[in-house]
Amino acid sequence: EIHQDPVGLLGASLTLEKDRYKITVFGRNLTNRDFADQGSRFNVGPGANGVAHHVWGGEPRNYGVELAFKL
């Protein structure tokens, strides 16, 4: 069985708007915590005697800036 304890992730964003313009600064998984995003369990081998697990890691820390304007 695949099991993971609950994981808390820290994210933040700040948006400033003026007239037709908007700028947003954002960050996700700011503590860069490793966690499993999804996983699978399947039988392998002759007669399905073996079991294999595959786990995909979650998104690492990322951050950026978004710029937008209204026409």
Structure description:
The protein has 71 residues and is mainly β. It is built from no helices and five strands. The strands form two sheets. Strands 1-2-5 form a three-stranded antiparallel sheet, with no helix packed on it. The chain has a two-stranded antiparallel sheet with strand order 3-4. The termini are far apart. The model has no long low-confidence stretch (mean pLDDT 85).
Q: Strands of the biggest beta sheet: in what spatial order? A: 1-2-5
Question: Which descriptor suits the 3D outline?
Answer: elongated
Whole-angstrom Rg: 20 Å
**Class based on secondary structure composition and strand pairing:** mainly beta
Our estimate of the beta-strand percent is over 45%
Q: Which sheet architecture does the biggest sheet show?
A: 3 strands, antiparallel
Low-confidence stretches: none
Helix content: under 10%
Quick summary of this structure?
The chain is mainly β and 71 residues long. The chain contains no helices and five strands.
Q: What labels describe this entry?
A:
single chain; 71 residues; mainly beta; three-stranded antiparallel β-sheet; two-stranded antiparallel sheet
Give the arrangement of secondary structure elements:
Elements: E1 12-18, E2 21-28, E3 36-44, E4 50-57, E5 62-69
Antiparallel strand pairs: 1-2, 2-5, 3-4
